[in-house]
Sequence to fold (387 residues):
Amino acid sequence: MTGPGLNSTNPRPPAVSIEGLSKFYHRTTALKELDLLIDGGAIVGVLGPNGSGKSTLLKAIAGLCQPDAGQVLVSGLPPSPRTKEFVAYVPEGSYLYSWMTLGQTLDFVGGFYEDWDDAKAAELVRFMNLRLDHQVGELSKGMKARLRLILAMARSADLVLLDEPLAGIDPPSRARILETMIKEYRGQEQTIVLSTHEVGEVEQVLDRVVFLREGEIVIDANADDLRQERGTSIEGLMREVYQ
Amino acid sequence: MKLKLDFDAAKPIYQQIIDALCRAVARGELKPGDKVPSQRDMAAHLQVNPNTVQRAYRDMERDGLLETARGTGTFVTERPELLKDIKQDLAFREVSGFIEGLRALGYGDDEMLALLESEIRRLQSPKPTRNLPATEEEQEEDEE
Fold:
């Protein structure tokens, strides 16, 4: 493999390029001299137990946390308002206004982004079995999770960052979210990075898996290659690594 | 085409897609010249990453099992040797799995061959008659 940007047939810079990234919270180390290169056109799972640095890593890529050391580049650019135009970041938990209806939320969030597609948003609302007049404060946890994915996928972002998109959600919502991810994923033009502490049914959606432990990468490989080499599922491998 | 797959999460998914398609051809459910679902439809149907389907199709194209005609889709290759190749490939993999399994149990090559030969003979020999209605002679024997 040639270095990033050296291959003349593919002048596109890597979707994510991280070198020596460290982040500390008081005395706790969230990320420790982490290197990660994601070429693009893949669905990458960042795996690890709670507190392994997954959320901090996604925030650093989204430009929402200032590194203590090292560098993050998104399509060759440091995270900035400019990169937010092609990066969709969906944090864990609710950051939405409970007094708005679902429809108002779509209008409100959509207003921030050039690449927002109203027709796509409406189609996703139908596919996800949600109602535009439903108030956000009255949505179940699973419905909120579905709404969060709509907010990411109604844009045509090159890079989608999903923090624990399935945590604590009912099985039907999980299934719908995975279905939507597969249906809307734009292949070689799009990169999805999702974090999860429980790989379960996501495992057949992931191209590549990055295992984090105490802020460091312990495994980084193609998911099918890992199954072949280790003769175990990604879920099984997680049990081994984090026992 | 109905392609059902119960994934074994411990094996590469792209390999399981290739296997399922090859078996469909070997069984005649999928014929040379038949169109296979697009990568996107196949990914949605199997609920897997589209890149994984792409990897499976690419390997099958490389091996001459599938061919993609620009703009019209992907088809099972129309050539006389196709079925033979696929059956050979499936048989080859069955046999390698068999050998690996017996090696893991500590069988040597000669023991393996002997076991295979005796098993083939056993399966060829006529079924034991016990389940069939007994002949008069046998009934007499039983009574003795």
